[in-house]
Specification:
By secondary structure, this protein is mainly alpha-helical. The chain has 15 helices and no strands. Among the domains are: 111 residues; 106 residues, no CATH class. Helix 4 crosses helix 5 and helix 7 crosses helix 12.
Length: 430
């Protein structure tokens, strides 16, 4: 059979190849081949990888790693702050043991409290105050001894005991009172620093964003209304002008006060300075964080208001009323007992045919002894209830010391009013 297969036409084959080569995708491939062979240019694979990297979405793994690293940094900062606070407390305990260390500790706390008094002058004042107290106690003691017709030897022995043991006790009490006063004053200064710290940090942030250096921004952010903080920042500025490192001067300022908020803020500021980040934004975030902590504390105190109301009502209103009622019932029972004793005579209460006679003595419990017991119980309960209320509302006993005189005064007044009112209401029962 004749071969019917057609032979390929070379002209048509060349035309088809030209048509295929004129397509845009073929031109792109040829361009990439030429760029691969060109010297000094990136190969095609690298170009495609760079293009894909530009449009690639950030992976969640990198975000998680960054969050974990930030959490680790925060945890490390908190650990360092806690370690420094523990070290400071250990140093204070060790320093309290020796006499020279006690004087140093007292002078440091006097300086922290804002007083410029040497320790020697304080000791002299306490010594003279003890002498005055003992002298004032000696005069009534001698007068009472003479009225009781005591011997001269007894009076001399009593005065010697008073001037030896009494003087030592008076000096010890004055020392404890002075130290507690200094401690409370330091705590109040710490609260005043923490109260104005967010405003100061925001002003410093604004100064840094305006282009000031950090030390000048801290100096220019000082305002008279900042009080204690203004004086401390002035001291920091003086130290930096005299050549001391800003990092060291800020840490010395933060170590003066047992404040975790202040220590954390200073540590974050120093780390931001070392890292070279945006200090203005960092200070603004620290200020916002402190304000959020305050609002959270206020919300927590508002959530436990029912407990505060219950404790206050029980200690201030219910307890004095019940003690006043007991006082009046004791008066009624004693009045009934005296009437029965007068009617029955010396033989006691008649038996009534049962063979049992009762003898009620009205002098078993004295009203004066009961009043001493009632006042002691009421003042003690008011004292501890005020401490509990201050701990619930403020989170610290020192911050709520103003509640103690209020609770004690109100308790005594309500007890007195309850005695008088119940005496008028129940006085006709006897």
């Amino acid at each position: 059979m004749p071969n019917t297969r057609k032979k390929d036409n070379p002209a048509s084959k060349d035309a088809g190849q030209k048509a295929i080569g004129n397509r845009p995708q073929d031109k792109l491939q040829q361009h990439l081949k030429d760029n691969d062979n060109a010297p000094g240019k990136e190969p095609k694979k690298l170009q495609l990888e760079n293009i894909s990297n530009i449009f690639r979405k950030p992976s969640k793994k990198t975000d998680k790693r960054e969050e974990e690293s930030l959490k680790e940094k925060d945890e490390n900062i908190e650990k360092e702050i806690k370690k420094e606070i523990k070290n400071i407390k250990r140093k204070e305990k060790k320093e309290k043991k020796s006499l020279a260390a006690r004087r140093r500790w007292l002078s440091e706390h006097i300086e922290k409290a804002g007083f410029d008094i040497p320790v020697s002058k304080v000791n002299k004042l306490i010594f003279y105050a003890g002498l005055i107290i003992v002298f004032l106690l000696t005069i009534p003691l001698v007068i009472i001894s003479i009225r009781n017709a005591q011997s001269v030897v007894g009076i001399i022995i009593q005065t010697l005991l008073l001037w030896s043991l009494g003087f030592a006790v008076a000096v010890a009490i004055l020392h404890v009172a002075f130290r507690s006063f200094i401690d409370i004053k330091v705590f109040q200064r710490k609260l005043s620093v923490e109260e104005v710290l967010p405003d100061f940090l925001q002003l410093t942030s604004a100064n840094i964003r305006a282009g000031m250096p950090i030390d000048r921004a801290l100096w220019m952010a000082v305002r008279p209304r900042f009080g204690v903080l203004a004086k401390e920042i002035e001291n920091v500025a003086k130290c930096t002008l005299s050549g001391e490192d800003l990092h060291k001067s800020l840490i010395n300022f933060a170590n003066k006060y047992d404040s975790i908020i202040l220590l954390r803020s200073v540590h974050l500021l120093n780390e931001g300075i070392e890292a070279g980040g945006d200090i203005g934004d960092l200070l603004n975030k620290i200020a916002n964080n402190i304000q959020e902590l305050r609002t959270m504390k206020k919300e927590m105190a508002a959530n436990v208001t029912t407990y505060v109301i219950f404790i206050s009502f029980a200690a201030i209103v219910a307890a004095p009323f019940l003690f006043g009622l007991s006082h009046e019932l004791l008066n009624i029972v004693q009045g009934i007992a005296t009437n029965v004793a007068e009617s029955s005579g010396p033989q006691g209460m008649p038996s009534g045919g049962i063979g049992i006679s009762m003898n009620i003595d009205s002098d078993n419990i004295k009203i004066s002894d009961y009043q001493i017991f009632a006042y002691t119980c009421l003042i003690t309960s008011a004292f501890f209830s005020s401490i509990i209320v201050s701990t619930i509302t403020k989170g610290n006993v020192k911050e709520g010391l103003q509640y103690i005189p209020v609770f004690v005064g109100v308790v005594v007044i309500i007890y007195y009013i309850a005695i008088k009112a119940l005496g008028l209401m129940l006085g006709g029962l006897v």
